[in-house]
Amino acid sequence: MPRRRHRERHRSERTGWLRAAVLGANDGIVSTASLVVGVAAAAAGRGNVLIAGVAGLAAGAMSMAAGEYVSVHSQADTEQADLSREQAELERDPAAEQRELTGIYIGRGLSPALAKEVAGQLMAHDALGAHARDELGISGARAARPIQAAAASAASFSVGAALPLAVVALAPVPDLIVWVFVASIVFLALLGALAARIGDAPVGAGALRVAVLGAIAMAVTAGIGALFGPIA
User: Fold this and answer.
1) Where are the domains of the chain?
2) Which of 58, 87, 132, 145 is the most buried (most CB within 10 A)?
3) DSSP per position, 107-145
4) What is the pLDDT of residues 3-31, one digit of tens each?
């Protein structure tokens, strides 16, 4: 019978898209909720609050996508430059590169003889891949993907921003600020718990961290809106 291949999935494989998605959703909730709370605190009506929130959603999603793309693309450019430099070194002096890889494995606990053998076999199979992984710390799971990160960030921001906007559309006007404030804290706590669960981190700490920071942001903008309101 054919042997079944055992494949393990590790949390680190998710770090690229998870970081962008969580950052986008968190920023979408916090920035949009803070914006609408601040505008509402300035005695604006529901229509004005919704217009400000929708504008904030559109601008924020584009900003997140552009910023994430530029940031991750810069990382990708750096990785590519390191790989090109490593390839040139391998072509110029492969023996020195094998000694360098051997030293890395010795430092990780292998005996000199075994480290030399492992380095030789790995370089014979994929020299650049071995140096990228063990010398530079670049692997397929961790490689920078600018388009993926930008799309995840923009989409998650939009989803996050839509949540407080839905509350604005449905909540009674006299209690609009309270509804947005409380609902957004709940959304943030759930997001923090979900991100912690996916990343196999403590759920309570993750939920509390984002909820407290979001509450502070909304309180500050509400105070600013009340200070400079009402809007003419």
Assistant:
1) 14-228
2) 132
3) HTT--HHHHHHHHHHHHHHHHHHHHHHHTS---TTT---
4) 555 455 545 445 555 666 777 888 899 99
Identify the residue whose tokens are 């003889």: 113
Length of the chain: 232
Place of tokens 């030789």: 120
> Quick one: 100 exposed, middle or buried, by C-beta within 10 A (0-12, 13-18, 19+)?
middle
Tokens (6 digits) for 91: 């072509």
Model pTM score: 0.67
Q: Using only the alpha carbons of the chain, give its radius of gyration.
A: 25
Per-residue pLDDT reduced to its tens digit, 174-206: 888 899 999 999 999 988 888 777 777 788 888
63, two tokens: 């900003």
pLDDT of 59: 92
What pLDDT sits at residue 17? Answer: 59
- Position 69 scores a pLDDT of 85
Per DSSP, the residues of the chain read: -PPPPP----GGGGHHHHHHHHHHHHHHHHHHHHHHHHHHHTT--HHHHHHHHHHHHHHHHHHHHHHHHHHHHHHHHHHHHHHHHHHHHHHH-HHHHHHHHHHHHHHTT--HHHHHHHHHHHHHHHHHHHHHHHTS---TTT---HHHHHHHHHHHHHHHHHHHHHHHHHS-GGGHHHHHHHHHHHHHHHHHHHHHHHTTS-HHHHHHHHHHHHHHHHHHHHHHHHHH----
pLDDT at 23: 76
